[in-house]
Amino acid sequence: MPIRINLLTEAIAEENLRRRDPVKRAIYLGGFLIVLSLVWLSSSWLKYKMTQNTFDRVEGEIQMHTNAYAQVQANLKVIGEDKRRLAALAELSKSRLLNGDLLNALQKIYVKNVQLVRVRLDQSYVQHAGVPAKSNGEGSTPARPGTSTQKTLLTLDAKDYSANPGDMVNHYKDALVSSPYFSSILDTNSGIRLANLSPSQSSGDGKSFVLFTLECKFSDITR
Asked: CA–CA distance from 199 to each of 3, 118, 166, 202 (Å)?
């Protein structure tokens, strides 16, 4: 029986030992883990970019809606201010003093031997500044718009030709107070006061008379 001798046995054994070297295995494993990490990092970066794009899109939509909401709020504020002005104009139209009504009421007041010689109407307005809204730690105070107060003073100059000049002054004053028109607009505190009463005088036909002046203060109107 022939004997076979493999002269490469030692070389093969060394090669197998080199292949089973743990350092080389560690290098291969480390390279694999590095490649795997790079793949995971690339995937994470791609997801981040996609999420960032979605975030930017949503943020843009939110900003667009925020701007639209701010515009709507501004429009509502303008509409509210216009409504307030319209209501104020309607109130002014309803409560304004009409000279025609005033003269019509005066001509219906008759007191014997009293002649109305002059009518003067003075109107003035007092402006009141508005107050802006305020807020503090305890709460907030709403804004208050500016207002104006209308003050009206009617001055009547008249002559009293009665037998005893001056006796009919109070009668004329009472007639004004009892008039439905004047009773509705006269100030409840001041009302009508005698501002002037002249001494007795004589007219061209020999009749005696006195001149008197009544001041009629109307109720203040604030708008």
From this structure: 172, 18, 9, 10
